[in-house]
Specification:
Number of helices: 2
Distance between the termini: 27 Å
Number of domains: 1
Number of strands: 2
Radius of gyration: 19 Å
Largest sheet: 2 strands, antiparallel
Strand order of the largest sheet: 1-2
Shape: elongated
Strand content: 5-15%
């Protein structure tokens, strides 16, 4: 089985957001996310929707910069 599950650390143990059946001793891979990035403001994609030809070069650069700074949309 290969599955990715979101969760959080409650101060004592890792708690998964979904109930996944696992056997005792089952191997897992744990990825620790940067807590600082999790609290950063997300890119507001609606700001750029429907712009079409009206989207100027400066707007496009700002949009790409926002995506790079916030890799989780």
């Amino acid at each position: 089985m290969l599955i990715a599950v979101k969760g959080y650390y409650d101060g004592k143990q890792i708690v998964m957001d979904e109930d996944i059946k696992m056997a005792a001793g089952q191997r897992v891979i744990v990825t620790i996310l940067d807590a600082e990035k999790a609290h950063q403001k997300k890119v507001d994609l609606r700001k750029y929707m429907g712009r079409g030809e009206k989207m100027f070069h400066k707007d496009a650069q700002e949009y790409v910069k926002g995506l790079r700074n916030n890799d989780r949309v």
